[in-house]
Amino acid sequence: MQTMIIPLVFGIGTPELVLIALVFLLLFGGKKIPELMKGLGKGVKSFKDGMNGKIDEPDESATGTETTKKEEKTSE
Question: Which residues of 49-69 are buried (b: 16+ CB within 10 A; e: fewer)?
Fold first, then answer.
């Protein structure tokens, strides 16, 4: 019985991926990698939102309107 080997993108196999991961770990270190991945994820999300036409709306807390609404309720 033959085993079927499925080639990955650009012919990169498991040994190559392990080597790339080791080089990545050596270059950036274990503590920096989660920060890099978090930034990469935010960038991809921002790109997808931009492609879909979504626009980020500013938070109410950043403009201060949230505090004025609370103040108006307490003054009544």
Answer: eeeeeeeeeeeeeeeeeeeee
